[in-house]
Structures are given as structure tokens and as C-alpha cells.
Specification:
mainly alpha, 7 helices
């Protein structure tokens, strides 16, 4: 649900919410197909709204990406939590990685976001929780491995 300038939740008019949803659907499709380099004007055209409507709802690309990929990060967190419930550690890692890799295979935008896109968006801004939860699932699968040692530079 959108917020106002003071950060308070507010309800949009029905037509404004419909336009917001059209924008999100179009942006999701375009980002998945073409990546994060898609501009507001392309999104507006695909959504069937004026470019000003896109800017009104999402003043910059970061706000649009946050609206879209927060759900993806939540799915990744859910995948990690689900994997932690799997008894066999290897099966847990396989389940988690299969889910995450399928999500990335389905969306070029998510791949770019995960790989620190050249469009200036920091993946940690959206994925910090998912990363911590994913690391927890991996650590469950490798309980008998020793702690990693820092790499030392060769003096040869």
C-alpha cells in the first residue's frame, strides 16, 4: 500500500490503485524480459498510462524496484525458512538453491539486482534479510565443516 510524504499509509482512489497495479505488472514484465535498464517511458507505454502517472507513483527507479522486488525477497526468505525445516541438510540446500535459481532464471531484473546491476541499485538494500536467512540454511547443511580461515597472501 502506498505511503504519503510523511510515511503514513494511505488508501488510493480505485482508479489510482488500478493504474499503480498496471504499472507494477508492466514493470515486472519488462524488467524480467529486458532488465533494469527499462525506463519510465517504456513502462508507461506498456501499462497504458501517461509517463507522469508512473513518475507520480514511483518518482525514481529505486522506488519502483523496491515495490517490485520486496515481494521477491520475501519469497527468497520463505524459501530459506522452508529449507531449514528439511531434515536432510543436503536436501535443504538443494531445495533452497533450486528455488532461488529458478526465481533468477525467470527474471533478468532479479538477476541484475542480485548481481549488483550497473544501473546503480545496491542488492543489499532489498536482500539483506534474504541473505542472512539463506546463510542460515546453508550453515545447517554444513554443520561439520570447520570455520573458514582467512586467506593469507603468498610470500613466494
Amino acid at each position: 500500500m502506498p505511503t504519503d510524504s510523511a510515511g503514513e499509509w494511505r488508501v488510493l482512489r480505485r482508479d489510482a490503485e488500478e493504474n499503480r497495479q498496471k504499472i507494477l505488472v508492466a514493470a515486472d514484465r519488462l524488467f524480467a524480459e529486458e532488465g533494469l535498464g527499462v525506463g519510465h517511458d517504456q513502462i508507461a507505454h506498456a501499462a497504458g498510462v501517461a509517463v507522469g502517472t508512473v513518475y507520480r507513483r514511483f518518482p525514481d527507479k529505486s522506488s519502483l524496484i523496491a515495490a517490485l522486488y520486496t515481494e521477491q525477497v520475501d519469497r527468497a526468505v520463505d524459501a530459506a525458512r522452508s529449507a531449514r525445516m528439511v531434515e536432510d541438510p543436503w536436501a535443504a540446500v538443494v531445495q533452497f538453491l533450486t528455488t532461488i535459481l529458478q526465481m533468477q532464471a525467470d527474471s533478468r531484473g532479479l538477476r541484475e539486482l542480485s548481481a549488483a546491476s550497473p544501473h546503480g541499485h545496491e542488492p543489499g538494500r532489498y536482500s539483506g534479510t534474504a541473505t542472512a536467512t539463506g546463510q542460515s540454511a546453508v550453515s545447517k547443511a554444513t554443520p561439520s565443516l570447520p570455520e573458514p580461515r582467512p586467506l593469507q597472501a603468498s610470500t613466494a
